[in-house]
Amino acid sequence: MTFPSTPLAVFALAGIAIEAVAASLLHFSTAGLFAVAAASATLLVAVWLLATARAEARQRRDMEERIERLGGLQVSLLSAILRTLDLRDRMTARHSAAVARYSRELAAAAGMPEEQQDLAHTAGLLHDIGKFILPDHILKGNTQLTEADWAEIRRHPHEGARIVSQVDHYQPVGEVILAHHERIDGLGYPRGLAGDEIPEIARLIAVVDCYDAMTARDSYRRPIGSDEAIIELRRVSGSQLDPRFVELFIGMLENRDLSYRHGQDADLETALAISNHVRARTAAPG
Questions:
Q1: Most buried of 56, 66, 77, 124, CB within 10 angstroms?
Q2: All domains in the chain, ordered by first residue
Q3: Structure confidence by residue, pLDDT tens digits, 3-39
Q4: Is the peptide bond before 190 cis (omega within 30 degrees of 0)?
Q5: Rounded to two decimals, what is the model's pTM?
Q6: Is the backbone of residue 183 left (phi > 0), alpha (psi -120 to 50) or beta?
Q7: What's the number of CA atoms in the CB half-sphere (13 Å) around residue 193?
Q8: How many CA atoms lie within 13 A of 156 on its CB side?
Q9: Beta partners for residue 237, in sequence order
Q10: Is the dihedral of CA 176, 177, 179, 183 positive or negative?
Q11: Residue 6: Cβ within 10 Å count
C-alpha cells in the first residue's frame, strides 16, 4: 500500500474517505449527520497535522543541509587560516602538524576513547591558530622581543579560542586551545588554572607542545636532542606539566626513529586531511 506524498493528495484522499462515511451513514438517522460531521472534522484535523508535519520535516532537512554547508565553510576558513600561517611561517605550520599527531597518539596511549583522540588531534592542529594575529617580526622571531611583544604572544590562546569557538561544534576545541599554556602549579596563562581545573586534553597537548618546541630542527631557538628534552620534561613534571602525560609520552617515544622524535616528517596537509576525515565521519548520520 502506498501513501500520498503531497498535502494536496492527502486532502483528496480525505475527501474520498468523508464521502464514503457519508454514504454509509446519512440514510440511517439525523445522528448520522453528526457522525459525518465529527468524522469529517477529525479527518481534516488529521490531514492538516500530517501536512504540517511533512512541511516541517522538509524545512528541517533543508535547514540541516544549510547548516552542514555552513559548517563546511567554517572549517574551510580555519584550514585557510592555517595555510596562510604556513605561507607566513613554515615553522608554526610544521609544529602544529607535529603536535596534532603526537597528541592523537598520546590520547590513544592514555586509553581515551576515539572521540577524545579526535579532539586531541584537532585541538593540537589548531592550538596556535591565534598566532595569526601576530605581526611578522613576532611570528618569525627574528628580532629581540620586547615585553610588549611578549604580551601579544600571551594573547594567542585567547585569540585562538575566540576564532575556533565561532565554528559550530568546535567549542570543546576552543576550551582546550584557551588552556594549553596553563600550568599544573597555577602559574600559567591566561587564567591561572591549576591541576584538574585544566582540561585534560589541554594538559596532554602542553606536554607534546613543549617537547616539539625543544627538539624541532626548524625552531628559532637552538634545538636540543630528544634525550635532553626528556630530561627537561621530567624536570618540570608536576609543576608545569602533568606527570601522567609526561611519562606516557616518554614511553611512546621509546624505540622510535630520529625523524619521529624530532617531528621532521609532520606535514600540515596530512594533518588537515585527517581533521577533515574526522569531521566528515562525526557529521555522518547514524
A1: 124
A2: 7-59 (no CATH), 89-283 (1.10.3210.10)
A3: 444 555 545 545 554 555 555 544 445 544 554 455 5
A4: yes
A5: 0.71
A6: beta
A7: 19
A8: 20
A9: 241
A10: positive
A11: 10
CB atoms within 10 A of CB 118: 21
User: Alpha helix (H) ranges present in the chain?
Assistant: 7-25, 30-88, 90-109, 114-126, 136-139, 147-153, 156-165, 171-179, 200-215, 226-235, 243-253, 258-261, 268-283
| 16: its cell numbers | 474520498
Alpha-carbon distance of 100 to 89, in angstroms, equals 17
Q: Which amino acid, residue 248?
A: L
Contact between 217 and 223 (Cβ < 8 Å): yes
DSSP states along 83-120: HHHHHH-HHHHHHHHHHHHHHHHHHHHTT--HHHHHHH
DSSP 190: S
What does the chain come to in residues? 286
Instruction: List residues bridging with 241 in a β-sheet.
Output: 237
Task: Rounding to the nearest 10 degrees, give the CA dihedral for residues 245, 249, 250, 253.
Answer: 180
